[in-house]
TrEMBL record:
Protein name, entry field: ABC transporter permease
Keywords, alphabetical: Membrane, Transmembrane, Transmembrane helix
Top-level division of the source organism's lineage: Bacteria
Transmembrane residue ranges: 30-47, 59-80, 101-125, 131-149, 170-185, 191-207, 283-301, 307-327, 347-368, 374-396
Length: 408
């Protein structure tokens, strides 16, 4: 039988190799080119926006909430599998080294989620404060310490099954995270010391309290499986992922959308795609979340036409890239073969639905622009975003789908 160290090393190598394999498909030349283009446009807009930034802009509050959300979502990647509940459960008392390695791996890999946003916020932070490079490094070190603390608490809470305990912990941790991160960016040493003492006592209390508790194997395995499926969903946007598990949810209040499809055998795929779009949390959730986030960002822009266009186009692009896998949602369904004309209308039905989704986003983004900017910026954003939606659907998406079908 393999030792604990060999089990961890084998699994982490498999995890890294699998991630690397799917990233190779995800970060293809076309996508990198688009990201470079959007990144350059975003950087230019960011720079111009900073030049017009008012002194009372709540930059520290925005940074605080952003990093509070990042660190509170911390959890340890255990890389456990369903079979472990049978084969590893009897030797639970020998797995301390395994979970220590899992904790170190999680902290190192998730530290990039702190470092990258801090780099992006650096110009804004320097603009609104008198901070320098040394101050930024201190902030980074303290933020990583907060990240470490959240991982420790999250691991301790994984020994609990009570929902009340978990919700109470989330509320307390959110308050502590917001407070300590705010004082980190505000460079208030006294309150930082007080809060770190409180946080130390908090993590020590739970760490000692769970020493007599057993691991909740079903809970840990379910959480690990959820993280894997989240990555598979993202990778499935670019290539087929055999291990992806799909789920559907009944949403009767959206049945009116299905009724808009005309009853005809040529509209088989249009009906199926609309049905899948509203029943699958993967697609509908992505559309709703990105639309809300994009609208919030648009509301903070300072009447810059380029900024409104870049943000609107960026979030429509991100939405399209993530829901493009809808085209293959019924790839293995044989029922459509009963309708002779269904396959002919498959691509056009898909493109029609995608264009409708992007038009809805375009209208929402344009209305947000109308509320916070001038009429000319509203018109410019509406035209540019609608034009991008048309080109993105009927040129990029259409050609990419045709190319993928030829390669199969």
């Amino acid at each position: 039988m393999k030792s604990v160290n060999e089990i961890w090393q084998t699994r982490v190598n498999q995890h890294i190799n699998e991630t690397r394999m799917y990233l190779k498909y995800m970060l293809n030349d076309h996508l990198l080119f688009v990201f470079i283009f959007l990144g350059a446009g975003g950087a230019l807009t960011y720079q111009r926006w900073l030049e017009t930034l008012s002194p009372d802009f709540p930059a520290i509050v925005i940074m605080t909430l952003t990093f509070a959300f990042i660190v509170i979502t911390s959890s340890v990647r255990t890389l456990l599998k369903e079979a472990d509940i049978v084969f590893l459960l009897p030797m639970e008392f020998k797995l301390r080294g395994y979970f220590q390695k899992a904790f170190r791996y999680s902290f190192i890999s998730q530290s990039f989620l702190v470092i990258v946003p801090l780099i992006l916020f650096t110009p804004l932070y320097f603009k609104v404060t008198d901070a320098n490079g040394k101050t930024l490094l201190i902030c980074l070190g303290l933020l990583l310490l907060v990240k470490f603390w959240n991982l420790r608490v999250s691991w301790a809470m994984s020994f609990y099954t009570e929902a009340s305990a978990k919700w109470s912990d989330l509320i307390v941790r959110f308050v502590l995270n917001v407070s300590v991160i705010y004082f980190i960016f505000s460079q208030d040493t006294l309150f930082l010391i007080i809060l770190f003492v409180i946080m130390t006592g908090y993590v020590l209390y739970f760490s000692n309290n769970v020493k007599q508790k057993a691991l909740k194997w079903e809970q840990l395995i379910k959480r690990e499986e959820g993280k894997k499926q989240s990555f598979y969903k993202l990778a499935n946007l670019f290539t087929d992922v055999p291990k992806l598990k799909k789920q559907a949810k009944r949403r009767a209040y959206l049945d009116w959308m299905v009724k808009q499809v005309k009853y005809h055998q040529e509209n088989v795929y249009e009906y199926l795609y609309v049905r899948a779009l509203i029943r699958s949390g993967d697609y509908l959730g992505i559309i709703v979340r990105l639309t809300i986030i994009g609208s919030i960002i648009l509301s903070f822009l300072n009447e810059q036409l380029t900024g409104y266009i870049v943000v609107s186009v960026l979030f429509i692009f991100l939405t399209g890239i993530q829901i493009m896998s809808l085209y293959k949602h019924f790839e293995l369904l044989e029922l459509t073969n009963l309708y002779p004309n269904a396959e002919k209308k498959r691509l056009s039905s898909f493109l029609k639905i995608m264009f409708t989704v992007f038009l809805v986003q375009t209208v929402i983004y344009s209305l947000i622009t109308f509320l916070f900017a001038t009429v000319s910026i509203f018109v410019g954003t509406l035209i540019a975003t609608a034009l991008f939606s048309y080109l993105f659907v009927f040129i990029y998406m259409k050609n990419r789908i045709k190319k993928n079908e030829k390669d199969v």
